[in-house]
Amino acid sequence: MGNSASTSIEKKMKIVVVGAHPDDPETICGGLMAMYSGLGHEVVSVYLTRGEAGIEGKTHEESAKIRTAEALTACAILKVRPEFIGQIDGNCEITSERYAPLLDLFKKEKPDIVLTHWPIDSHRDHRICSILVYDAWLNTGRKSALYYCEAMSGVQSQNFAPTDYVDITGVVEQKHKACFAHVSQEIEQTYSEHHGKMEKFRGMEFGCDYAEAFVRHVKSPGIYLK
Ligand SMILES: [Zn+2]
Known about the structure:
By secondary structure, the chain is an alpha/beta fold. Helix content is 39%, strand content 16%.
């Protein structure tokens, strides 16, 4: 995975990003999503939940409605297609029944590249999301390249040592606009404290202004972001 984004693509790829909550795909790899949709690849933003528990003083139903709308706005900004899996925010489960929707998603979408949460994360839903995606990847024959993303490293993701970087400098404003669409989460007000620091630090490591960092699963097939 490099930063040699060109104006034409050799082969249209499908990139599927699976996050636990509305705002996760956008904050963990929104730059990559904007870049690849802009190059003509198909990008799908999958939300395990609708953020039911994410707004204080609102019922689950009210929060889900507000946060679904925010996710749809963010997806429109990134020019990606949203999908929702139907788990409940703050109460994500791993059961034999809960593996099925992710397996079905992999069978339906047949992604070339999958990105999801790094599994060592202080948020239980992020950990569960990562494990469900890993299971679906294994049980559909490891056909996609699997990349893990960091979420607020140090606060949420721990022990994250990147293997790959993407220069997102050219799309960083589009990424920010998509993240800030999650108005109920006050991301714009706190962005510079967490996500903003991360993308600048990863840029320092990679040698550009802003970057996103990833861990590539070593048993991924020979499909790379380029
Ligand atoms: Zn989250």
